[in-house]
């Protein structure tokens, strides 16, 4: 049985994230979505609880998926939930180099990484881009789950 962990800050969750979750759920017998608190990133737009709520709503039909918040090293969280692999998405060459370095470090700590190449329809989507667009009042419905757009616009104005 393969149990995987797809971890990220998901601030906010994007359609790219959701696509990778569906693909990873089709590969793994069990998939944990770890919503991390990253203190090195900018101040979060959404609380961890809000991000978990959105992800639960969006993955409702995926029975083998569970969602949990965590702090600390992703590899430690992966081990604590019994995951055998980390699932990571790649959008670009820049992602590959960063993720390769992390995968090597995680492997040295006993955790393998499985890379999924993002579909071309979502490679331009990033949480950073969405924060920038929201701050400018731009439409976001093409990039994020339904129901988040007005909340992001309000919080980032």
The fraction of residues in strands falls at: 15-25%
Helix count, DSSP H or I runs of 4 or more residues: 6
Give the low-pLDDT segments. none
> How many β strands by DSSP?
5
Oligomer: single chain
Span between termini:
46 Å
- Cα-based radius of gyration, to the nearest Å: 15 Å
Q: Quick check: average pLDDT?
A: 93
Main pleated sheet? 5 strands, parallel
CATH H-level superfamily title:
HUPs
Shape: globular
Series of H and E elements = EHEHEHEHEHH
The name of the CATH architecture is 3-Layer(aba) Sandwich
Helicity level, as a percent range?
A: 40-55%
Write down the CATH class: Alpha Beta
The chain-level structural class is alpha/beta
Keywords:
alpha/beta, Rossmann fold, five-stranded parallel β-sheet, 6 helices, globular
Helix-strand blueprint:
Blueprint: E1 3-8, H1 15-27, E2 30-36, H2 48-58, E3 65-70, H3 74-80, E4 85-90, H4 93-108, E5 112-117, H5 127-135, H6 149-156
Parallel strand pairs: 1-2, 1-4, 2-3, 4-5
Could you describe the 3D structure shown?
With 157 residues, this protein is of the alpha/beta class. The protein has a single domain (3-122), classed as HUPs (Rossmann fold, 3-Layer(aba) Sandwich). The protein has helices spanning 15-27, 48-58, 74-80, 93-108, 127-135, 149-156; strands at residues 3-8, 30-36, 65-70, 85-90, 112-117. A five-stranded parallel beta sheet has the order 3-2-1-4-5, with helices on both faces.
